[in-house]
Structures are given as structure tokens and as C-alpha cells.
Amino acid sequence: MRIFVWHGYLLGGTGSNIYARQLSREWSREGHEVVVFSQERHPERFDLAGAETVRPDVNGFLPVFVIDEYEGYEVKRVQDSTREELEAWVAANADAMRERLPADFVFVNHVLMGGPVGEAVGAPYVVKAHGSELEYSMRGNAELSAWGQEALTGAEATVVGSEHIRHVLADVCGQTEDVHEIPLGEDLGSRHADRAGGLAASNLRPVRFGLDDVEAQMATLRASLLEGYGRWRLALEDVENLWALAAWKSAEEEAPEQPPSLAA
Fold it and tell me: How many other CB atoms are found less than 10 A from the CB of residue 146?
């Protein structure tokens, strides 16, 4: 089976980067013809089990979910980029993939920007939803959420790594069809999300990584910290009010009594 794996960033460091790398390696080890599309400058540093690597020319622009340093790129958050910038970036990635067709199916990471990339390629595609794009760029942004939902509608299937991400996906993009949960240690070949020719052959070994669970835990921790900060601020205001009241009482008690006025 000829499989395209698209990940618009690097192949090391963060959760989805490692996810894309590990998935590509496992499929390649099972004898599939895998082509990995990413912005990794040094793919030779990673064990991809012989998978071909391609670095699309994106004109030095990189839309991200969390700002970080990427040498040689103009970096913007997805939500801070114009629609024209994002669509040009999608087109550049899709062009590189179309040049290497045919493919039995295309596996893209991230609802945005992977979903629109997969849609633009013109081959059957599957979208892997991650917590990063959903929580840090799409949540609360109606335009991006609608774009993501549109891209998922055209996909053969959407994959999530946990029940938590399934719920986040529904919250952000609305109810979507053909969402399949593939959690830690499960054999990808045992799933039936293979209307495009299969997410993998039936003999794939388990892909053992829980990166989505980590992302889910981080999102939950972030929400908990924000909630805790809010409670702390309220408690601090209560303490400040008590100090002010105590100071006022103390001043009232220390004020010298006025002598009684003399009768006229």
C-alpha cells in the first residue's frame, strides 16, 4: 500500500511531531510504501524505516499553534494569519503531494491545517485530530472551526486518540461523522475506518504511544490552572478587603475621643 503521511512541522520535539514520525516508521516497517511530508530539515536523524521524505516549499511561512523559534521561517499563530496566507500555505503543501501521486490514501495530522491540505490533494484522506490545534487555535474562533468542520466532512475518516479529544473535537467543530478512537497500544489494523483502502493493513503491530493522552492531560491541567488562578484572585481580593476593614477598625479605635462640649 502506498501511504502519504503529512505533518506540516518537524519530526521531533513535540507530541504530534513524534506521533507522525512513529506512525510513519511502523507503517514502513510493515512493508508499506510510505512518503512523509514535513518541514523537517534533517529527516536522516530519525528512524523512519526507509520511508521517503519530502519537504514542501512553503516560501518560508509557518502557521503554528504555539509560538516557537523555527530557523528560516516567518512564524505566526494560525489564528493570527490571514486566510490568504493560510490558503497559500495549504496550496504549497498540496502541490508537493499531488506531484507524487498516486497514493492509496493520505493521512494528515491536525484538523487545521491538515484537513484542508488533505482535501486539496484530491486523494482519499484521513485526518488525525490533535489537542493542540483544537485548544490553542480553533476553540472560540468561529471561522477556523467552520473551516475545520468543512475539511472533516470531506475526509474518509477522522481519528482521535482518546475520548477526551473526541469531545473536544465535537465542541470545537460540531458533530462530525466517522470519528474513530484509536487509543494507546491498539492495533491500527483492527479498526474499520478503512473506506479509503484502510488506515493500515490488518497485520500492523500496535503503535505504542499515548501522545494524545498527554495533550489531553496538558489541556486539562491548563484549564485547572486557570480555574485555580481565578479562585486565588477571588481569595486575594477577600483578604485585601479584610485587611482594609481591619485597618479601618483599628484607625477608628485609635482615634482620640473628643472632649464633651461645654454647656453654654
Answer: 13
Residue 184 near residue 217, CB atoms below 8 Å? no
Q: 2-210 has which fold?
A: Rossmann fold (3.40.50)
Q: Are 21 and 54 in contact (CB under 8 A)?
A: no
Share of the chain above pLDDT 90, in %: 64
Mean pLDDT within 67-76: 92
Q: What is the mean pLDDT of the chain?
A: 82
User: Which whole number is the average pLDDT over 131-160?
Assistant: 96
- The C-alpha atoms of residue 93 and residue 68 are separated, in whole angstroms, by 21
Q: How far apart are the first and last CA of the chain?
A: 112
**How is residue 16 annotated by DSSP?**
H
Provide the CB-side half-sphere exposure for 198 (13 A, CA).
Answer: 14
Hey, where are the domains in the chain? Answer: 2-210
Q: DSSP character for 49?
A: T
Confidence of residue 226 (pLDDT cuts 50, 70, 90): low
